[in-house]
Amino acid sequence: MSLEELIESATELIVRSRHMIALTGAGVSAESGIPTFRGPNGLWRKFKPEELATPEAFRRNPRLVWEWYAWRIGLVLKATPNPAHYALAELEKLGILKCLITQNVDDLHERAGSRSVVHFHGEILFARCTSCGFRLKWSEPPSEIPPRCPKCGSLLRPDVVWFGEPIPEEALRRALHEASRADVILVVGTSGVVQPAGSIPYIVKEHGGTVIEVNVEESAITPVADVFLRGKAGEVLPKLVTAVKRKLGKRGKE
Ligand code: OAD
Ligand code: ZN
């Protein structure tokens, strides 16, 4: 089937859905200039996760970890949402997309207008105190490295989930609840290899829902995808939204 025909099948599933959710990964922000983790130019090609993204790494060398995060905070602050983020926000405004679960730590979904966002892996623009829990938001990268808590002087840490750490309780609860009631999940730009996030589409499937995937290549989700749309999120998602709006318009007139 051609991409156009596949978009047509996905559109039919989407307009018929009663509770559609989405799962996004680094691929949706790639066209905004934020590097993905895996793949040819992925961060994990250049950097070692065990040196930068674990609680042990932070205990060993908070300065090194913070230097890496300060660089990434700068990238996020400079980036702007791309057509993929806007398309997802539009699906929510149309009343179709009920919840967006993202593994991304940037705030590009919110800046594009999405409201119902679950940050499964935390948010890079926030830091929290390792001793008193005080939380703050960066409007520019931290200048003092490693940064300290303005309340108690202890070390701050990025408010993200590191390898070996649990998913924030409320994010996990909401995501599992949404996955168990969704009849359609739109999965965009994730390799699907990091757990438990990668299980979310499988949970939807087990509950009888359908899986639509958008990715430039096959992923760990593709085996359960009912419709696989191969291409860049920033190109495929706007086409999908246009097709959905056209179909909704026709239905309105019927
Ligand atoms: P990955 O870097 O593992 O995967 C990115 C996916 O996006 C790949 O499947 C690419 O094929 C796809 N992709 C790249 N560019 C794309 C584009 N323009 N349009 C569509 N798809 C595109 O990123 P995640 O799956 O998000 O964890 O990684 C999951 C987690 O692993 C991250 O949240 C992070 C990382 O370690 C934590 O921070 C805890
Ligand atoms: Zn503190």
Task: Give an overview of the whole structure.
Helix 10 (200-206) links the parallel strand 7 (184-188) and strand 8. It is elongated and about 65 Å long. It contains eleven helices and nine strands. A six-stranded parallel β-sheet has the order 3-2-1-7-8-9, with helices on both faces. A three-stranded antiparallel β-sheet has the order 5-4-6, covered by helices on one side. Helix content is 42%, strand content 18%. Helix 7 (83-93) packs parallel to helix 11 (233-253). The longest helix is centred in the last third of the chain and has 21 residues, at 233-253. It has 254 residues and is an alpha/beta fold. The structure holds 2'-O-acetyl adenosine-5-diphosphoribose and zinc ion. Zinc ion is lined by residues 129, 131-132, 134, 149, 151-152, 154. The site of zinc ion (ZN) has 8 residues, from loops.
Task: Chart the SSEs and their pairings.
Blueprint: H1 3-16, E1 20-24, H2 26-30, H3 43-46, H4 49-52, H5 55-60, H6 62-78, H7 83-93, E2 97-102, H8 108-112, E3 117-119, E4 122-129, E5 135-137, E6 156-160, H9 169-181, E7 184-188, H10 200-206, E8 210-215, E9 227-230, H11 233-253
Parallel strand pairs: 1-2, 1-7, 2-3, 7-8, 8-9
Antiparallel strand pairs: 4-5, 4-6
Helix pairs in contact: 1-11, 7-11, 9-10
The structure holds 2'-O-acetyl adenosine-5-diphosphoribose (OAD) and zinc ion (ZN).
2'-O-acetyl adenosine-5-diphosphoribose is lined by residues 25-27, 30-31, 36-39, 42, 103, 121, 160-161, 189-191, 194, 214-217, 219, 232-233.
